[in-house]
Specification:
The complex is a heterotetramer of chains A (516), B (326), C (375) and D (315).
Chain A: E1 4-15, E2 18-29, E3 33-38, H1 44-51, E4 59-64, E5 67-68, H2 74-79, E6 82-85, H3 97-101, H4 117-130, H5 146-158, E7 164-168, H6 176-191, E8 195-199, H7 203-209, E9 212-217, E10 220-226, H8 232-240, E11 259-268, E12 272-280, E13 284-288, H9 295-303, E14 310-315, E15 318-319, H10 325-330, E16 333-336, H11 340-344, H12 351-356, H13 373-386, H14 404-416, E17 422-426, H15 434-449, E18 453-457, H16 461-467, E19 470-475, E20 478-484, H17 490-497
Parallel strand pairs in A: 3-8, 3-9, 6-7, 7-8, 13-18, 13-19, 16-17, 17-18
Antiparallel strand pairs in A: 1-2, 1-4, 4-5, 9-10, 11-12, 11-14, 14-15, 19-20
Chain B: H1 2-12, H2 14-29, H3 36-61, H4 69-87, H5 91-115, H6 120-139, E1 144-145, H7 148-151, E2 157-158, E3 162-163, H8 164-182, H9 184-194, H10 196-201, H11 206-232, E4 234-235, H12 243-253, H13 265-285, H14 293-318
Antiparallel strand pairs in B: 1-4, 2-3
Helix pairs in contact in B: 1-14, 2-13, 3-8, 3-11, 3-12, 3-13, 4-5, 4-6, 4-11, 5-6, 5-11, 8-9, 12-13, 13-14
Chain C: H1 13-32, H2 34-41, H3 45-57, H4 67-92, H5 100-115, H6 121-124, H7 147-173, H8 177-196, H9 206-210, E1 214-215, E2 219-220, H10 221-239, H11 241-251, H12 253-258, H13 263-289, H14 301-311, H15 322-342, H16 346-374
Antiparallel strand pairs in C: 1-2
Helix pairs in contact in C: 3-15, 4-10, 4-13, 4-14, 4-15, 5-7, 5-8, 5-13, 7-8, 7-13, 10-11, 11-13, 14-15
The chains are: A alpha/beta (516), B mainly alpha (326), C mainly alpha (375), D alpha/beta (315).
Bound molecules: adenosine-5'-triphosphate (ATP) (2 copies) and magnesium ion (2 copies).
């Protein structure tokens, strides 16, 4: 009765040492969106990779429209009408947006080997418009922010006329607005009769979008069925295999008066204007804003990755030199970047070395600079355990082979090992599962109670509201408003972010920032 | 706004600007440097290495390297001469066959790299050694002379005014630039060089693309060899050795990266090649002490690369998008 | 836990059983081929390969084992090993150092200028150094007892200086290493030739020449220096802060910088080490040739990088070990020596050389693919 | 291959040369190896590819193989001394060919031509030709690789003549670098001719560059027979086949000649004598005076030029 377009039958996949998928079977129906949820490393991406022709299953078969389906390559999968949006962005940074979108096709001018630049750009522009992405098709991808890149990646998949679309955590870099927009498109596609698999750790999104759901745990299908049968708490419990009552831990407010970080009128042409922010000991300060509102840029300035033209940044009352991440680290700053692949991790390096990288000087002897490997691996091991890092070996496994969420844990781990006094977290929970998120929140709360100040950038209002003592709202490179915990109100925050006035505020700049 | 536009323009074309400046500088030292004839000489002397550097650019774009071009030049030139001198093969046919030598060496490289999975550096080092060894073997190290019918080609003019070697060079550059910028093949080459794994996932036939670059490089090396023999008329045992470094240097000076994905044939590699040739000519024009010449050459190249890198960071800064509301 | 599955699931037992059976049988196969595989998969593969090569050649060239030949092999190996180790540092960084050859030339010339005890006016009057640093009585420290230590220190300084220039340009101006080091190669080899106006400087102190002389059986100053350097380099790369940072920068400079790695300093240090190693190689080569020589080592670049790459180091950076470099150098030296001993006609010697490298490279690839499938 | 435990009757000599990139070296190589083989001697050949270090390694290797004698064409005079010392220590007679050892501290058989003197002789003839013109001339020299002592010596010979007739020159000589590379030579000669169109006195440090010179001069209308008003006074050094042809055809004024065959004979004789008499460190300096073959003495001295002989053989 149900119109099955695709089915997995007894799929098993092993990586050396890891049993990533164990006898997985389920089906995908026409005109349905299927949600796939599971903890980090549950095997979701692996499953998609198998369908998308990137990996071959060790055992088991797949059927497409009732016929056996064995894709030899991604191209082959594509030819079968299966399009795949990878969890890790697969864009060529040295090519333009339009070229990236048409990389495997390139419409040619009739009877010539040359492609039609105009047509390509036109099509591209249309696609971008449908995603409400206002960038030029000619811009190089290297100039785009992660969020924009993600939308380009999505546009690339939408540009084909595929029957089946696989979205592997497509919204990790998107804000609510773009996400909503993407969902509208996905619903439209579904209504056009396409089938979609949607993977996400944001369960509320999953609930609002999908028709059916499959829960994966440790490479096995635990459960599946229509979404109505799966309220969030059930989903969570199935995913993690135990009872979890809360998504957010309880916050212990521990703010002390001592200001750790203070920015004075920081400005940079075209990026940020007149930013005054302070973070106190034990305080978690959230920064909310739409994509490209300048939070990341500001965080980079604070940490010394980028420089700024005017103003100053003080740490513990002393000015912090510009453009010297090393100095910032010495002064107790830590920075979890939003771009883990390019800036956060050494993908080709073992996990242990990644975790150790920041703290190496602390583990090396004074003059010879010999590294105390024993102590190092012991402490790294502890960090790994405390983060529930899922890996076979810290020492020998490369970060590249970790699941997305576990990679994120490595980034967090390497800064925790350094015991920072101010932690800047740019989208730290991106791509990690509920369980792990919970751990991260617990860690944040613990750090704060130990006196660490935290600057917490996130595009999820809920988690900001749950975790922060204060939320600073950004828009277009400016701080618009500051909410104290007692004033938190999702609607208000969103309105400010969109530069709409609150009923009690004046129009543009709602309230002057800072309470000093 | 307008000022930044001017700055941007200058920055973007700084290599060309520098090029003109060097040209003017030598012209001021030695006025005859400004003659059209001199420019023609520079171009014609740049042509063979330029042709090879174009091929090298293709290889570099994929993140490979081709150390065999110098030997390819030698072996194909030797084959060409032997065919004409000892087997009385018609010149045109001999030239075509010698291009095939380049093609074959390129195919061997391509096969070893994409099918046997050998590292490009080692593979082309092997073909370099073997090809030259083979050339020495068939010539017994004796120089090969070319009949006048070959050397006269260098004096022939296409359309009445473009010397043949410059014409060949321009054609190669034109085709290569079009291929790189305007065809799917070309753009995919950039993609492969940017990230091989992504490219595979995007369904690009990476091996085929990579293989093709070595074939192109081999073919163009043979063509470059032919262009040279029309000019110098004789091939010694040392012919072409070390040219691989000149070709790589020209491409890298033109902005190509050894790690792939970055570089252009035009203006990049062409400017790089012509610039080196121009500086060399300028030094001779200025009659500078021959012991000092290479020192000045090195310093000028350093300046060029230095300016280029400063420019790149500046452009990056200027192109940062404005997120502030005006 | 509850398993409410709508989609049907077959029982779990069968596939599991199959799997275990499968693993078991594959294990027995592994046991049989284990020794060959272990050899093939070992890190010391290139070494084993070279040893195999030697064994194959032994009946053909009995003289291979002649003590004098072993002595030759060793004395050829040490200087190349020293430069190659320097190059290893830079290759790990995803850089390349073409200027090592010019460092050897330049340092040998400058060192000789310091140390030489006499210079022929007919040869050197045209040199810009004549009358300044060089006279008929030789160099500055011509007759002094300090000539050798100071000379070697000056040579080291030359290497460090050139390395610093390279590293600084690469680190601070983000200039491509290939071009930077190419330029300094051109610059300093031209400079070396200019300084002596093409002449070689002889009459170096006896103590200096002794460095490369073999005492007793195989022990020589070169051996001690090279092995000492190799051990230090190995420790630096595997154990120290600097070593670990070197790999990190080689893999991803941006990420390392954000993690507080002083990438610029690391880069500069690596190039300086490369220069210093080249200068030490300059000491070994020039003491063996008994002269300061403006063209010293000018043809060695391919051997240096080739040895590194055969050893398993990649031009893409982030990979490399001193042991690999040693094996690579050993391979290259044995290859050259054996080809000399075979007395092939030089017309075919290149082709034979190419083929041997090809076989080595092919075996290496085979090894890697087996290793991948194993894991 | 292989059994080097020298059978007492068979003599093995190692011939270690620096490279075979030009006709001159090829001919030299041939002259020596053929003469050796004609004398029933086993020859081991080693090519150092222009690397003194490699040559040292090669010589050590052949000594290990137990050769009876070593003949080297060294990279330069200084390395000749070092290598000769190695041979002295091992008790193997050594002959140094073509490039003189820089001093006599090692014992060796030396057969050399003096590049400086020969170049000077050739340029001297060119200067005499220039004098006949009764006007000042514009001199130029194509210089070889500055790392090669032969190139440096030849340049010096040229400069000596420049100094000798200061009034003959309209300007200081134009020096054209070639790095012993035909392509570089072509480009630089072209530039030089463009910068100094009046050049009418050109000396090349090696005969192998004549085809390049022709391809530059011909389009400029300067490739003419001796005596033509547009003739560029042309000289070279080596005495190779091309030079022989150009001399016969009348394009070339003079070339400096090393008497290659004579040199080879000298070397062999001395070496065989040393081997047979069991002398382990023979020491003897033999000069090849060399000469300049010019249009003037072509009829009398041509046969002494090795290139001429080969040229006639080929014909
Ligand atoms: N190439 C690989 N080599 C080794 N192990 C791998 C590789 N790819 C994935 N794995 C392992 O397989 C398991 C499943 O990974 P997968 O990426 O499918 O997880 P996921 O469900 O997508 O997790 P996440 O939500 O974190 O993205 C993980 O334990 C991971 O470490
Ligand atoms: N022209 C450009 N060149 C390079 N990067 C650019 C450019 N324009 C924008 N960006 C990127 O856009 C982003 C600017 O917004 P930023 O990321 O600071 O805001 P955000 O509020 O953190 O948004 P997001 O949620 O996307 O991180 C930066 O990541 C910046 O690197
Ligand atoms: Mg995943
Ligand atoms: Mg951001």
């Amino acid at each position: 009765m149900a119109d099955v377009v695709f089915s997995y039958k007894h799929i098993t996949k092993r990586f050396f040492g890891v049993h990533a998928l164990k006898d997985v079977s389920f089906e995908l129906e026409r005109g349905k969106i299927l949600g796939l949820v599971g903890e980090n490393g549950a095997g979701k991406s692996t499953l998609m990779n198998i369908m998308g022709g990137v990996l071959e299953p060790d055992e088991g078969v797949m059927q497409l429209h009732g016929a056996p389906y064995t894709p030899k390559s991604p191209l082959d999968a594509s030819a079968h009408g299966i399009e795949f949006i990878h969890q890790e962005l697969n864009l060529f940074t040295n090519l333009s947006v339009s070229e990236n979108i048409s990389i495997s096709k390139f419409p040619c001018i009739q009877k010539t080997p040359f492609f039609n630049k105009k047509q390509m750009r036109f099509c591209c522009k249309e696609l971008l418009d449908s995603l409400h992405l206002d960038i030029s098709p000619n811009i190089l991808v290297e100039n785009l922010s992660p969020g924009e890149r993600q939308l380009v990646e999505i546009a690339k998949a939408l540009s084909t006329n595929a029957d089946i679309l696989l979205f592997d955590e497509p919204t990790t870099s998107l804000t609510a607005k773009e996400t909503e927009n993407l969902f509208a498109i996905m619903r439209r596609l579904r209504d056009e009769g396409k089938s979609i698999i949607y993977i996400s750790h944001i369960l509320s999104d999953v609930i609002s979008l999908v028709d059916d759901i499959v829960v994966l745990r440790d490479g096995q299908v635990i459960c599946g069925g229509p979404i109505e049968d799966f309220p969030i708490h059930r989903m969570i419990n199935l995913m993690v295999g135990r009872e979890i009552s809360n998504v957010f831990p309880e916050r212990h407010s521990t703010i002390k008066s001592n200001v750790i970080l203070k920015s004075n009128k920081v400005s940079e042409t075209g990026i940020v204007r007149n930013i005054n922010i302070n973070v106190r000991e034990g305080e978690i300060v959230g920064m909310f804003g739409l994509m490209g509102s300048g939070r990341t840029e500001f965080a980079r300035m604070v940490f010394g990755v980028d420089s700024y033209r005017e103003g100053s940044i003080m740490v513990q009352g002393e000015p912090l030199p510009k453009h010297k991440p090393q100095e910032s680290i010495k002064r107790g700053l830590a920075f979890i970047t939003e771009n883990r692949r390019e800036e956060g991790l050494l993908m080709d390096y073992p996990i242990l070395e990644n975790i150790a990288l920041v703290s190496l000087p602390d583990f090396s002897a004074p003059i010879t600079r010999l590294v105390n490997t024993k102590r190092l691996s012991k402490e790294a091991q502890e960090i790994g355990t405390s983060l529930h890092l899922k890996c076979t070996s810290l020492k020998n496994q490369k970060v590249k082979s970790l699941s997305g969420g576990n990679q994120q844990k490595v980034v967090i781990g390497k800064w925790l090992l350094k015991h920072p006094s101010l932690l800047i977290m740019d989208e730290p929970t991106r791509g990690i599962d509920v369980g792990a998120k919970y751990e991260v929140y617990v860690i944040m709360d613990r750090l704060a109670s130990e006196g660490t100040g935290i600057l917490f950038i996130s595009s999820e209002v809920e988690e900001l509201m749950a975790m922060c003592d204060r939320i600073i709202v950004w828009s277009q490179g400016e701080v618009m408003h500051e909410f104290l915990r007692k004033d938190f109100n999702q609607e208000h925050i969103m309105r400010i972010a969109f530069r709409q006035s609150l009923e009690y505020g004046s129009n543009e700049k709602a309230v002057a920032n800072g309470q000093d | 706004m307008d000022r930044t536009k001017v700055i941007k323009f200058t920055l973007k074309n700084s290599t060309a600007v520098l090029f003109v400046l060097i040209f003017i500088m030598f012209g001021l030292i030695a006025p005859r440097f400004f003659t059209l004839k001199n420019f023609q000489n520079i171009m014609s002397n740049a042509s063979y290495i330029g042709i090879i550097a174009v091929g090298m650019t293709f290889v570099l774009l994929t993140g490979g390297i081709d150390l065999s071009v110098g030997s390819t030049m030698y072996l194909s030139a030797v084959v060409c001469g032997k065919l004409i001198n000892e087997f009385q093969v018609p010149v045109v046919l001999a030239v075509l066959l010698s291009l095939c030598v380049g093609l074959i060496i390129g195919m061997v490289n391509a096969f070893a790299i994409t099918k046997l999975r050998l590292v490009p550096f080692i593979t082309t080092l092997i073909t370099q050694t073997v090809a030259r060894g083979f050339g020495l073997f068939i010539t017994r190290s004796v120089a090969v002379n070319y009949p006048d019918s070959v050397t006269l080609m260098s004096t022939s003019k296409v359309l009445g005014f473009i010397p043949l070697q410059i014409f060949i060079f321009l054609v190669v550059v034109l085709i290569a630039a079009l291929v790189l910028n305007r065809t799917r093949y070309g753009r995919q080459l950039y993609a492969v060089g940017n990230d091989l794994e992504f490219a595979k996932k995007a369904g690009i036939k990476c091996d085929r693309l990579i293989a093709s670059t070595y074939v192109i490089s081999g073919l163009l090396a043979a063509l470059g060899g032919f262009v040279t023999i029309t000019q110098i008329g004789r091939v010694n045992a040392g012919f072409g050795s070390g040219e691989e470094f000149d070709a790589i240097a020209a491409a890298v000076l033109g902005g190509a990266s050894l790690f792939g994905g970055i570089g252009t044939v035009f203006p990049g590699t062409v400017l790089g090649t012509v610039m080196i040739e121009m500086i060399q000519a300028g030094l001779v024009f200025a009659n500078i002490d021959i012991y000092i010449q290479p020192i000045i050459m090195a310093l000028i190249i350093f300046m060029a690369v230095f300016i280029d890198s400063v420019r790149t960071t500046q452009i990056h800064k200027l192109e940062r998008r404005n997120i502030l509301k005006a | 836990m509850k398993q409410s599955l709508r989609k049907q699931r077959p029982d779990e037992g069968t596939p599991m059983m199959q799997k275990t059976a499968l693993t078991a049988s594959s294990r027995t196969i592994t046991m049989h081929a284990s020794l060959a595989k272990r050899l093939l998969l070992s890190e010391y593969f290139v070494l084993y390969l070279t040893i195999l090569y030697i064994l194959v050649l032994t009946p053909i060239i009995p003289r291979l084992w002649h003590p004098m030949n072993i002595q030759n092999i060793l004395s050829n190996m040490w200087p190349l090993l020293v430069v190659a180790i320097g190059q290893t540092f830079v290759l790990i960084l995803a850089g390349i150092d073409l200027s090592q050859t010019s460092v050897m030339a330049m340092s040998s010339v400058i060192g000789a200028v310091v140390m030489t005890s006499s210079a022929d006016p007919i040869l050197f009057t045209k040199s810009p150094l004549w009358g300044v640093l060089l006279s008929e009585q030789g160099g500055l420290l011509g007759a002094s007892a300090f000539a050798v230590p100071v000379g070697i220190l000056v040579m080291l300084a030359v290497g460090l200086f050139i390395g610093f220039l390279n590293g600084f340009s690469v680190a601070y101006f983000k200039m491509p290493p290939f071009i930077v080091t190419l330029v300094s190669m051109m610059l300093f080899s031209a400079m070396a030739i200019y300084l002596t106006k093409s002449e070689n400087i002889r009459h170096l102190p006896q103590a200096y020449l002794q460095i490369s002389k073999t005492k007793g059986s195989f022990i020589s100053g070169s051996l001690i220096i090279a092995l000492f350097l190799a051990i230090i380099a190995h420790i630096v790369l595997t154990r120290t802060l600097f070593g670990k940072r070197l790999y990190a920068v080689g893999i991803n400079t941006t990420a390392s910088e954000i993690s507080g790695v002083p990438a610029k300093t690391t880069i500069i240090a690596a190039y300086m080490l490369s220069g210093a190693c080249a200068a030490i190689a300059g000491v070994l080569y020039s003491s063996r040739l008994e002269m300061g020589r403006p063209t010293l080592g000018s043809t060695l670049f391919i051997d240096i990088v080739g040895a590194n790459i055969i050893g398993g180091i990649s031009l893409a950076g982030g990979k490399g070990k001193v042991t690999w470099t040693i094996f690579g150098v050993f391979f290259f030296i044995i290859l050259a020596n054996s080809l000399n001993m075979l007395n092939l006609s030089f017309y075919i010697i290149d082709m034979v050389k190419g083929s041997v490298i090809l076989v080595a490279a092919l075996l290496d690839v085979a090894r890697n693919s087996i290793r991948k499938s194993q894991m | 291959a292989g059994a080097k435990e020298a059978k007492s009757d068979e003599i093995t000599i190692a011939f270690c040369f620096q490279d075979l990139e030009t006709e001159f070296w090829v001919a030299g190589h041939k002259a020596i190896t053929e003469t050796l083989r004609e004398n029933g001697i086993k020859v081991i050949e080693k090519n150092a590819n222009e690397d003194a270090n490699r040559q040292l390694e090669q010589v050590k290797d052949v000594i290990t193989q137990g050769v009876d004698g070593v003949i080297i064409i060294p990279q330069d005079g200084e390395s000749a001394v070092t290598i000769a010392k190695v041979c002295n220590e091992a008790g193997v007679p050594i002959g140094v060919f073509n490039r003189p050892p820089s001093d006599r501290s090692a014992k060796n058989l030396v057969v050399v031509a003096n590049n400086e003197v020969i170049a000077e002789a050739a340029v001297e003839h060119m200067a005499q030709e220039a004098k006949k013109l009764g006007r000042k001339v514009y001199p130029a020299i194509m210089v070889g690789d500055l790392g090669d002592p032969n190139a440096v010596g030849r340049r010096q010979g040229f400069m000596n003549v420049m100094a000798k007739y200061p009034d003959l020159w309209a300007q200081a000589p134009v020096e054209i670098p070639t790095k012993w590379d035909a392509n570089v030579a072509l480009a630089n000669l072209q530039s030089a001719m463009q910068a100094n169109p009046k050049i009418d006195f050109l000396f090349t440090s090696s005969d192998f560059l004549f085809p390049v010179i022709k391809s530059v001069l011909a389009p400029l209308g300067k490739w003419n027979l001796v005596g033509d008003p547009n003739h560029v006074i042309l000289g070279g050094l080596d005495g190779d086949v091309t030079a022989a042809r150009l001399l016969e055809e009348g394009y070339l004024d003079a070339t400096g000649v090393q008497n290659l065959f004579y040199e080879a004979d000298l070397m062999l004789e001395a070496m065989l004598l040393a081997i047979k008499s069991g002398e382990k460190t023979p020491d003897k300096w033999m000069d090849d005076p060399g000469f300049a073959l010019t249009q003037a003495n072509l009829s009398t001295k041509a046969e002494e030029m090795w290139g001429w002989v080969l040229y006639k053989e080929k014909k």
